[in-house]
Design a protein that fits this description.
single chain; 393 residues; alpha/beta; Malonyl-Coenzyme A Acyl Carrier Protein, domain 2; Alpha-Beta Plaits; five-stranded parallel sheet; four-stranded antiparallel sheet; 13 helices; globular; Malonyl-CoA:ACP transacylase (MAT) domain-containing protein; [acyl-carrier-protein] S-malonyltransferase activity; Mitochondrial_malonyltrans; Acyl_Trfase/lysoPLipase; Malonyl_transacylase_ACP-bd
């Protein structure tokens, strides 16, 4: 395919072809250059194929284009390291499963944009989500298939509640990084414009269903170990695993913050952790009210369903950095984001590293949007001076 570029400087070009399964597209990734102007010449086949290009955030080192050849669209892969050197000042943080509580969403009634999100959700989910959020029953709201969509929608409704208050839009405009705890990563991606509210809800709905099915197929459990550092918790897991079969093994599934780590795995393995915790000088253990062994290989059956759904979903480059739970890094390339989201259900959540990195990089103000105050508690535990505000809906 003859495509020529003319620039006022030498512009190195990397061309790579994606597999046919990813829209049979070719992609151009242009590394950092010093660029004043950029123009294009083309063969007749490409004469009208360039739909547009832009310099991201005025940065001449990144060029993004969408090309069409005949009836096919050529998708451009963004440099995945685009946000690697982000410098956060204001963050939106979104909660994960477990934050749900009967009564959440009641403020949405008074904000039309927030209320509208629940109406859109009803069409996708097939039930009255707001009624369930406000009135329960708790047992139904706590189920994986309900709680994940409920938290996703309620958290984005909290954004609209904030937008409606004096100075709210200015706060939203000031946010330059976002992330979410497990499920909350989907909420963060929706806020950052990586996918639409509707597409994100469809993914979250399927994610909850797939995780519930995986949990039903292999019984597992999760327990929080309080009062130990991560090395000690790992030693506790190793000791527990010596007493159970391979199918019941456990691992650290959620690195929340110093002194609070969630262990996930087979029921017998979790019971062994609980029995041995005191001997390792843990302050306490708390069995978590979840359907199964999340963020471990127990969730492997959910991966293929997620991969298929993600492949069929349009994901765009986020407009601000979204920090991944898998590696505590921001990703800009939509294809990479899809892979990360598929891996997330079987990978340990690196929340402690995420928070440490944000604080180390100079984060000044944070907002926790959605039900509960778990994230605020973690931030305060890691830095008593951390400034964080809760916005509920």
């Amino acid at each position: 395919m003859p495509v020529s570029f003319t620039t006022t400087t030498n512009l190195p070009l990397i061309l790579r072809t994606l597999p046919s399964s990813t829209m049979a597209s070719s992609s151009l990734a242009i590394p950092s250059v010093s660029l004043k102007t950029l123009s294009f010449t083309s063969s007749d086949a490409f004469n009208k194929g360039i739909r547009g290009f832009a310099l991201k955030n005025g940065n001449p080192s990144r060029v993004f284009m969408s090309l069409s050849v005949g009836s096919q669209t050529q998708t451009v892969v963004v440099d995945d390291t685009l946000f690697l050197d982000y410098k956060p000042t204001s963050a939106f943080l979104f909660p994960g499963q477990g934050a749900q509580a009967v009564g959440m969403g009641k403020e949405a009634h008074s904000v039309s944009a927030a209320s509208e999100l629940y109406k859109k959700a009803n069409d996708i989910l097939g039930y009255d989500l707001l009624e369930l959020c406000i009135g329960g029953p708790k047992e139904k709201l706590d189920s994986t298939v309900i709680s994940q969509p409920a938290i996703y929608v309620t958290s984005l409704a909290a954004v609209e509640v904030l937008r409606a208050r004096d100075g709210g839009q200015q706060i939203i405009d000031s946010v330059d990084v976002t992330c979410g705890l497990s499920l909350g990563e989907y909420t963060a991606l929706a806020f950052a414009g990586a996918f639409s509210f509707e597409d994100g809800l469809k993914l979250v709905k399927l994610r909850g269903e797939a995780m519930q099915e995986a949990a039903d197929a292999a019984k597992g459990a999760m327990v929080s170990v309080i009062g130990l550092d991560s090395d000690k918790v790992q030693q506790l897991c190793d000791a527990a695993n010596q007493e159970v079969d391979e199918a019941d093994r456990v691992q650290i599934a959620n690195y929340l913050c110093p002194g609070n780590y969630a262990v996930s795995g087979g029921v017998k393995g979790v019971e062994a952790v609980e029995a041995k915790a005191k001997s390792f000088k843990a302050r306490m253990t708390v069995r978590l009210a979840v359907a199964g062994a999340f963020h471990t290989s127990f969730m492997e059956p959910a991966v293929s369903r997620l991969e298929a759904a993600l492949a069929a979903t349009e994901i765009r480059q986020p407009r601000i950095p979204v920090i991944s739970n898998v590696d505590a890094q921001p990703h800009a390339d939509p294809a990479t984001i899809k892979k990360i989201l598929a891996r997330q259900v079987t990978s340990p959540v690196q929340w402690e590293t995420t928070v440490k990195t944000l604080l180390t990089k100079g984060l000044k103000k944070s907002y926790e949007l959605g039900p509960g105050k778990v994230i605020a508690g973690i931030f305060k535990r890691m830095d008593k001076k951390a400034e964080i505000e809760n916005i509920s809906a």
